[in-house]
Amino acid sequence: MTTATARACANIAFIKYWGDRDAALRIPSNGSISMNLEGLYTHTEVRFSPELKKDTLTINAFPISGPGLARVNTLLDRVRQMAGMRLCAQVTSQNNFPVGAGLASSASAFAALSLAASAAAGLQLSERELSRLARTGSGSACRSVPGGFVEWQAGESDADSFAFSIAPPDHWALADCIAIVSQAHKFTGSTEGHARAHTSPLHLARQAEVPRLLVECRRAILERDFETLAVFTELDCHLMHAVMMTSSPPLLYWQPATLSVMQAVHAWRKRGLPVCYTIDAGPNVHVICERGVAHRVSAQLVEIPGVSQVLVASPGGPARLEIR
Ligand code: PMV
Question: According to the model, what pLDDT value does residue 105 have?
Answer without folding.
Answer: 83
